[in-house]
Specification:
The structure is a single chain. With 206 residues, this protein is mainly alpha-helical. Helix content is 65%, strand content 3%. It is flat and about 105 Å long. The termini are far apart. The model has no long low-confidence stretch (mean pLDDT 77).
Length: 206
Amino acid sequence: HVRSLEKESESSAPGEKVKFLGIREQRVTHVIIFILVGLSAFMAPLLSKIPMPVLYGVFLYMGINSLDGLQMFDRLLLFFMPKKYQPDHPYLRQVPTHRVHFFTAIQVGCFIILWLIQSFKQTSILFPIMLVLLIGIRKLLDKVFTNFELKVLDDVLPQSKRQERLDQEEIRRKSIDCGNMEENSSVNDKNSDDEVRFRKNGGGID
C-alpha cells in the first residue's frame, strides 16, 4: 500500500533507474487505521479466538521488516562481509571500517548488558539506572571518537536526513579538493611560465 503511494520519475531511456520523488499525500489510510484501532476495544471476543502463534508471527514479521535500513543492523552485517562485498554506505566513505566496527562493538556491548540486567529479577530494578548511565557512556565516546565520526555514526537526525546531509558534505569536500587541485595546478603553470621566461632571457646560459 505504501509503495502504491510513491511518486517516481518516468524512465524513458532503457536501463535508466527511476528516482523516488516523494509520497502522495492522503488521509484515508490514517482515518481507517484509527477507526479500526478504536473498534478493536469492542472486538475482544473475536480477537481472543486468534491463536497466539499467529500474533507472535505477525510481530516477528514486523520486527524483521523494521530492521531493513537500520544503521546499527547494517553495521552488524559488515562484520560478516568481506570488504570487497560491502555495500556503498555513506558512513563507510567517511569513516574507516575498523572505526565503524569499534563503534558497533560498543553499541552491541551496551545492548547485551541492558538485556542481561532486565532478564534477571535480582538486577531488573537497576534497568532505569543503566539507561541513565548510557548517557554518560555516550559522553565518554567524545574522548574516543572525533566529532566528525560521531556525527556520521550517531547523529540525532533521522536516517534519511542524515544520509542526505552526508551526501551534501561529501559533495562540498570534493568541491574543496577540486578547488585545491586547480589552485595547485595554476601555481605550477605559473612556475613553469616563469621558468620558460627565465630561459628565454638567457638566465639558463652560463
